[in-house]
Specification:
alpha/beta, cytoplasm, about 290 residues, globular, binds 3-methyl-2-oxobutanoic acid, 2 domains, 8-stranded parallel beta barrel
């Protein structure tokens, strides 16, 4: 008798490692993501920028990890995502792929790597897929990026789109403000969402969008929506990991829920280590070789 594995069947739904495609035997694919939407299942996504952190999230059962250009602010010490380069995305994406066995890894196309047109986008995306082993790329923009998405998808590269607040355009927006407010802006957001779906994107990030509008987009599209500051009705939710785990210093956006205070934990550990060294308590006899 043969048994068919049903991903995330009711008996496996409590084990996060059993979500969307088996117990670690293969990577999550776009088919698993499409099947989750068809079944009405919500899923989590986190950013990751290095192999070790990525391995923690992979073992925790996070099905999709984004090597986001948020690495600019959260990992590389830039003021925004704008300066992030292809080389930086490539090096960190390859590290995240090496640190994981199961998650789908999405590599972000940085500012300036696809805006010139579809051919530039294809060149950049091909490089990331070939050099890093990532399973998909993400790019920002709705109608304005539809031609790029179409060519990448035709070339066999899965694309996650990103609309609403698109941080690479922060200078044009004049800040990180909620998008899609008012009838005209809401209609534009709906047009953007349909444009990326029609172009072949397998999912779309909705960033800083009113919850009611995000819910309408989610109902309208057959591809999953991934919300960040877009209310509870999206098919998936993404957070920048340093925000989610309390590593970020200072104020975090209102939509962030912090599930730990890693910055305090790490600071305490560093202070305890320093104290032990100064006091001569470390290294102790058990740490020494003779
Ligand atoms: O770069 C990033 O981390 C992102 C997410 C916030 C969606 O684009």
């Amino acid at each position: 008798m043969t048994t068919t594995h049903v991903p995330n069947s009711p008996d496996s739904s409590r084990d996060p490692k059993a979500l969307y495609g088996g117990k670690g035997s293969r990577r999550i694919t776009v088919r698993d993501i499409a099947a989750a939407k068809a079944r009405g299942e919500k899923w989590p996504m986190l950013t990751a920028y290095d192999a070790m952190t990525a391995s923690v999230f992979d073992e925790a059962g996070i099905p999709v990890l984004l090597v986001g250009d948020s690495m600019g602010n959260c990992h590389l010490g830039y003021e925004s995502t704008v300066p992030v380069t292809m080389d930086e995305i490539a090096v960190l994406s390859a590290a995240v792929v090496r640190g994981t066995k199961r998650a789908m890894i999405v590599a972000d196309l940085p500012f300036g790597s696809y805006q010139e047109g579809p051919v530039q986008a294809l060149r950049s995306a091909t490089r990331l897929i070939k050099e890093t082993g990532a399973g998909a790329v993400k790019l920002e923009g709705g109608e304005r990026s539809a031609e790029q998405i179409k060519l990448l998808v035709e070339a066999g590269i899965p694309v996650m789109a990103h609309i609403g607040l698109t941080p690479q355009s922060v200078n044009a927006f004049g800040g990180y403000t909620v998008q899609g407010r008012g009838e005209e802006a809401a209609q534009q957001l709906l047009r953007d969402a349909k444009a990326v779906q029609d172009a072949g994107a397998f999912s779309v990030v909705l960033e800083l969008v009113p919850a009611e509008l995000a819910a309408e987009v989610t109902r309208t599209l057959h591809i999953p929506t991934v919300g960040i500051g877009a209310g509870s009705q999206c098919d998936a939710q993404v957070l920048v990991w340093t925000d989610m785990a309390g590593m970020t210093s200072g104020r975090v956006p209102r939509f962030v829920k912090q599930y730990a205070q890693l910055r305090d934990v790490l600071g305490d550990a560093a202070r305890a280590f320093a104290e032990d060294v100064v006091d001569g308590a470390y290294p102790a006899e058990e740490h020494a070789f003779h």
